Amino acid sequence: MARVKSQLRRYLDLGDVHGQVNANVLQSGGLCYSLDSHILTVDGEPVKLTATETRIVELLMRNLGRIFPAEEIYERVWESPAYGAENTVMVHIRRIREKIEINPREPKYLKVVWGIGYKIEKI
Fold first, then answer.
1. Where are the domains of the chain?
2. With 80 as the cut, is the pLDDT of residue 19 above it?
């Protein structure tokens, strides 16, 4: 039974070698973001995000592991120059974290690199 469970776990976690890979889904650990439907799921459960939060998540998921300064996030998401936008981005990041993290104080996915910016970890 243990061997069968182990094989099933590997098959479900890593996927079928001969199966199709969906290029329209970005994944990092338990986070899955569908580019077609703009839906974020955490461990299979859909997360309700605002339009702005969705654009931030999409930006970070498309560039897993890359650190984005708050100014760059603001300019890309709001499409306007960032003048003192750190607090605005910080509030949106905090709200996203509250929705996707088990413990927002110790984030697993959405991390802050102090003095530089924000990123979603490659897991």
1. 23-120
2. no
CA distance 9 to 14: 8
Give the closest residue to 71 by CA, choosing from 7, 118, 107, 3: 118
d(Cα 82, Cα 119) in Å, to the nearest integer?
18
Pick the CATH number of 23-120 from 1.10.10.10, 3.10.150.10, 3.40.50.1860, 3.10.180.10: 1.10.10.10
Residue 58 has pLDDT above 90, yes or no: yes
50 near 104, Cβ under 8 Å?
no
Specify the pLDDT at position 13.
65
CA gap 40, 54 in Å, rounded? 8
**Is 30 in a helix, a strand, or coil?**
coil
Specify whether the CB–CB gap between 86 and 71 falls below 8 A: yes
Model-wide pTM > 0.85: no
* CA dist list (Å): 22 to 25, 33, 41, 81: 6, 11, 15, 35
